[in-house]
Amino acid sequence: MPGVTISVKGGKALAVTNEAGVFRLKVPSAGTVLVFSSIGAETTEFTVTNNTPITISLGEKNTALEDVVVIGYGTQKKSLVTGAISTVKSSDLDNMATSRVEQSLQGRTSGITIASSSGAPGAASTLRIRGTTSINNSDPLYMLDGVPVDVGGLDLINQADIESIEVLKDASASIYGAKAASGVILITTKKGKAGKFQFNYNGYWGTQAPARKLQLLDATQYATLRNESALAANPGNPLPFANPQALGKGTDWQSALFNNSAKIQDHEISFSAGTDKSSYYGSFGFFDQQGIVTTAISNYKRFTARMNSSNKIKDWLTIGENVTYSYIRSQGGLNTNSELGGPLSSAINLDPITPLVVTDPALLAQAPYNSPTIAPYLERDANGNPYGISQLVGVEMTNPLAYTKTQLGNYGWSHNMVGNAYIEVEPIKGLKLKSSIGAKLAFYGNTSFTPMAYLSATQSNLTSTSFYKAFSQGLTWIWDNTASYTRSIDRHNFGILVGTSAQQASGSGLNVTYRGLLVNSFDSASFNYGLPETVTTGTTTTSARPGSGWESQPYTLSSYFGRITYDYDQKYLFTGSLRIDGSSKFGSNNKYGTFPSASAGWVASRERFWPANKVVTSLKVRASYGTTGNEQSLGTFQYVSTIGSGRDYPSGTNINLGNSPNAPANPDLKWEETTTTDFGFDASLYKHFTLGFDYFIKKTTGMLMSIQIPGYVGASGLPIGNVGTLQNKGAEVELGYVNRIGKVNVSFKGNVSYIQNTITNLGTYAYMTAGNFQASAYEIGRTVVGQPIASFYGFKEMGIFQTQAEVNSYVGKGGKMIQPNAKPGDFKYADLDGDGSITSADRTFLGNPTPTWTFGFTANASWKNFDVVLFGQGVAGNKIFQGLRRLDIINANYSTKALGRWTGPGTSNSYPRLIDTDPNGNFTNPSDFYLESGSYLRIKTLQFGYTLPRSITDKAGMQRIRIYISSNNLLTLTKYTGFDPEIGGSSYSIDRGVYPQARSFMVGLNLSL
Amino acid sequence: MKTRHITYFLIGVISLQAFTACKKSFLETQPDGVILESNYYQNPTQALSGLTAAYNPVGWEVGSTDNTYIPRLGPLNSAADECYAGGGSSTDMNGWQAWETYTLTAAVGPQAGFWDRNYTGIYRSNLMLSKLGNVTGLDAATLARYTAEAKFLRAYYYFDLVRLFKNVPLFTAPVPTDQIFNVPQAKPEDVYAQIEADLKAAIPNLPATVAVSEYGRATKGAGNALLGKVILYENNTSRMQEAAGYFELVNSSPNYHLLDKFPDIFSPDNKFNAESVFEIVHTASQNAGWGTWPNFLANIYTQMIGPRTYTGPTYWAGGWSFNPIRADFAQAMKSDPRYQYTIANVDSIVNAAPGRSYIKGYNNTGYFIQKFAPLAKYVSTTGQAELNFPNDYIEIRLADTYLMEAEALVRGGGDQAKAQGYLDKVRARVGLPSVPVTLDNIYNERKFELATEGHRWFDLVRTGKAPTVLGARGFQAGTHEILPIPLVELNNTKLKQNPNYK
Question: Nearest CA to CA, how far is A494 from chain B (Å)?
């Protein structure tokens, strides 16, 4: 076979086989051991004895079964794993241009749904393993080399440092007990290996642009529609815009917003070396991403450094350490998904008639540009012309360029150090005692300056400047002690693990604001300026230097755990674990929780009776059952009655302070509990295919909810109790294919997951509201028994009344008109409760914001020195609520969808008539008018690489040089009409003007010395 | 490897594990900046703050389960014959509108505000009574006084509950967690008996007068007046003399006398005047903003009853036009000397000069409440204007106790001359001549003397006149003498709704 490397054992490569599989080399001496190695083949050694031609056959390496999987507190051979554990290896992550570890996981394995909260650089994602586990906290537990990392600090991890990510989806997570109900993600970083010194450089440079812009009206269309809408509401009044045609195209606000060549770059240097006694690994990384929206205030920089080493000081004593440092500096002074102002929402709602920059003298002579009190505070462009201020659209909407200027300089920063040190002793063979101390120390904060500026009549600060700085710190330490023993007797292999763990987390912060500094830009502001104690504006006197602080409540966790693994001849497999967790957050009656699990597997293909066949070359059937807890949903001291303040009462001329208890105590308060049952199998088929399948049922009980107590108890607050239950059911499939077709190596990996989430008990609550829409009196989502969590809830529209006759004939019982005040062009709403009128009771469930299907695929191919990677992911089954246009702003702009509005019988059955007052509630009623399908398929990465031939690299003294071009987010196939169908975060699947993800093109380089 | 090494290491690791895992105190954390109920009420300062919290609900203007505006006067004035509910539209403060039109249901009405306020007060009073005994450093006199104040407050809250709802749960200690849903409604007689017992126990230990810094705290006079009022409301003719006796303790006390000028009673410049027996205290010094919600200490009702978007002299510009005075009531009171101090004729002010205007709210009549009106001179300059009016509400004042004693004496067949004397004093204060002391005249005097002070509805109900006076509005005898129990209180509890309410 071609491409086989032949080297002297322990030395460098001598030759590579050619296409015919022939090689020729000069051997130093007889007795030299030659090593033949190739990807996907068993490495074979051969001792040279004489000069005769030799033929070597390399067997196929079934690497899948040889792989080692990281499970909690240890590793296990993949062939022996009985739990549902998905793995992502560094080879999958290399060169993938992702900035956060959640993005690295998206679409790579089954069972995980990830939605980025926005496309802003450094934006976090919402990650759900096997569905939403709880109505409270559903974030998985992230462990970085055994140290827990909070979700907010995840971006300190540089993807290039990751060796593998294991996702524990079922009872295999029970070893982590009270924090594992939403799954556990174990991130293992690269470590040094025995071998000669390795030096690598990986980097890429690229440019990003928005993948999609919204289609909004131009000035003429806008004026026409506004005229129509105003006329419908007030037929007698003059039209707001006398001559729409003369307005031309007007301003395209989105063009002011977007940067079509935002830069992105990433560089990483790593080096490692080792002997069989000790090894080390170090790396430095630098990542810099500009945002595609208002780049000057949207960007992200990260610098990471890491060092780890492992030293076998004696045969029985190993010590090691693992330390990461990262520094992040980012600017993000804009709303990333909000209708309440900010550049995106402003660009969507501002009228196109207002100019971007005012140069017309006639306009400059009008208010507000000519006002002597305001003119000095207008934001201006480089030529001194003021940015346009809309006289039609107000409230929070402002000129995006002007807004950007007021946020310049504001930034957030963090220094993070995560690491651990361990000592491992092996007093007798098979018995390992290990003690490891880990910690995460973070210092973080932000600095911002608010200038005096006039952005609009309602968005102006003409009183005083303020300069704000916040400085916080957080520390988590964890101390694990484990003892593990493995032994094989005949064909019985067993291992025992026992251990304890203790954790503590704390934090505090301070901030100060300086009011009234006589400067007007971030760069000029400083805390070195002296200020008096108070500042007086008008008749109000306030502190000039207010400050405040916070301290976190103490939090501790104490655990014991144990695990037994057993297999007979690698055929019959069993794993059982038990964890006991005590948390300071648990009520006094339930201080410790117990989390057992058991899983078993049967490798049917290793049975003697298994017929040798070419179809199923290996088959493992497995099942697991276990309990985990969701301690993260609890706050501190929720189980006791605390004393609240503010219950004051005046007497005479004083105010007396009053204190009384808040909610009644609940000493029974404890963790939410999830029980998972999983059945699955892993199989190798037809030599080239691997197939994995899982079916699971996850039941969550004891979800924390406020318990409604009657008012006659007189309490000031509701106690929290373990009340609700929900269920997630689903199936996952993972398919892999590796082959060599002719001269081309191909591999394919795909995964599909299906999940069905249902709320089963909400205690005394008939429903909980989930999701609001601007100022509508109606909520847009409800969490209700029998439906998925936060299901969209609203009216059902059945088309549009085309004629008055249709309005008249829409009658209920008794022949009374159901919508007597409706006019042609209004929505016809379904009278779901049959009471003859449209009321709040006529609302129903309209869709699921969480996808039911999640899928992803990676296809690799390589031919000679060329390689190509195609990676795509997508979701299906969810709806997105698109609420971009502000209904309370009469003059807000419309999307081009409005051009298809109803203007007469037969003109539209989906977009109602425009009328300012909207008496039928066509726009103010949440209905399926606002819902669109959120399904999408995204080509996330397409990369072409070329590895320079050995002849060239050898001359340069390098081992490998690869250059590549790559594109991220190349293509998104979706019916969704907004910026981006991937909307996570707190406004999940609710689009209020989300910062879209960028499409990028990059050139990269991999170097190995 | 040497066995010795193995042993040492095993011992080392095992003891390491024991060290971390076995410290139970590791999980017992102390809150930072948060006090546990079990650690509180340890010293006199904490005891006083607990007692203050028991007073706090008397001044509630916003909050409750619906998190809305809950001044006592708003709904009470809407339900009687002095005012409409008013506001911006027929659904503004929907609960008040429902009471005005007697379309109350368990879900719609002002009941939640009253229920929550009074039961929160009862809980905090009960809590203090259970904790006061264990406070170290509290001398006997102060302990007795605080106990008396807590009992006074508990009686005050139960009185409001029993006359508004009649069938209410009764407890004298905080409800244990396992009993929360098992509490039954008590018989009204039992509630009245508890109220009387509490007041009788409290009065001896309440101070006759309080220091200036304590104005607003319960006094002996307040206790006596309340006890007399409670007995009067029980409508037991044989006990009228008893009621009169308690009133007399107040009316003959040298600590109280009628003010010479009627409008002085209500002025924020005259807080804690000689006519005030029990005063609900509000303050402008909180400098509250909207973020202070719901812990306002000012009088929010004042803002609510001002004319809406008003341009003109005397009054604050941003009122919400609630409780406009009914035209027929204004007409009836026109000739009374108290008219101009009770009713603000905003229409005539606005028509008097150009440039003045106001927006006519729902059911506008042009007449607004004057006693608690938001006057421009009291508009706060340091806090949010709507949220910092200083007007106190005198719940029990001397003119009221004079008239109640007169009524008790007449109904109980007591000293008629004394009754006549009190009626005359109230009338003479405003220059009205004497009229015979009949029940009708007394009730008529109450109607005008105490107009818009939240007593009219109770007077109409307890005297049986409500069906006649309010029947045209929808008042049904046998149903509307009490409010419905709030709907949420019936969830999973043992409470039964009041008759005829759904």
Answer: 21
- Choose between A612 and A284: higher pLDDT: A284
Specify the amino acid at residue A952: I
Q: In angstroms, how far is the first alpha carbon of chain A from the final one? A: 26
Among residues B197, B193, B224, the alpha carbon closest in space to that of B208 is found at: B224
Task: From chain A, pick out residues whose CB is under 8 angstroms from the CB of B289.
Answer: none
Question: pTM for the whole thing?
Answer: 0.83
- Tell me whether residues B35 and A656 touch, CB distance under 8 A: no
In this structure, are residues A476 and A557 in contact, taking their beta carbons and an 8 Å threshold? Answer: no
Strand pairing of A781-783 and A278-290?
A: unpaired
What share of chain A in percent tops pLDDT 90? 64
- Per-residue CA distances from A327 to A116, A444, A445 (Å): 22, 9, 12
* CA distance to partner chain A, nearest, from residue B127 (Å): 9
A537 touches chain B (CB under 8 A): no
Distance, in Å, from the CA atom of B466 to the CA atom of B476, rounded to the nearest integer, reads 9
| Helix and strand totals (H; E) in chain B | 18, 9
How far, in Å, CA of A514 to CA of A367, rounded? 32
Is the distance from CB of A666 to CB of A706 less than 8 angstroms? no
Token pair for residue A190?
Answer: 């690269």
Cα–Cα distance, A150 to A133 (Å, whole number): 18
Yes or no, beta carbons of A435 and B13 under 8 Å apart: yes
Q: What pLDDT sits at residue A51?
A: 65
The CA distance from B334 to B327, in Å, is 10
CA atoms of A229 and A622, how far apart (whole Å): 64
Range B125-146 average pLDDT: 94
pLDDT digits (tens, 9 = 90+) for A775-808: 777 889 999 999 999 999 999 999 999 999 999 9
Residue A423 is predicted with a pLDDT of 94
* B1, pLDDT greater than 90: no
Closest residue by Cα to residue A423 from A313, A275, A561, A542: A313
- The pairing of beta strand A642-644 with beta strand B35-36: antiparallel
Calpha distance A186→A69 (Å, rounded): 10
**A510: part of which helix (H) or strand (E)?**
strand A492-515
Angle at A825 between CA A821 and CA A829, to 5 degrees: 60
Q: For chain A, percent helix, then strand, then coil, each to nearest 5?
A: 10, 45, 40
Q: Which of B1, B35, B286 lies nearest to residue A655, judging by beta carbons?
A: B286
Residue of A539, A552, A659 with shortest CB distance to B49 = A659
Contact A661, B175 (CB under 8 A): no
Predicted complex ipTM: 0.93
Q: How far is CA B474 from each of CA B103, B161, B452, B479, rounded to the nearest angstrom?
A: 8, 23, 21, 11
- Do residues B169 and B186 make contact, with C-beta atoms less than 8 angstroms apart? yes
Residue pair A882/A926 in contact by the 8 Å Cβ criterion: no
Structure tokens at A209: 């642009």
The minimal CB distance from B486 to the residues A499, A711, A715 is found for A711
CB-based contacts of B148, cutoff 8 Å, min separation 6: B201, B202, B203, B204, B205, B206, B218, B223
A729 neighbors A132 (Cβ within 8 angstroms) = no
pLDDT in tens, B234-289: 999 999 999 999 999 999 999 999 999 999 999 999 999 999 999 999 999 888 88
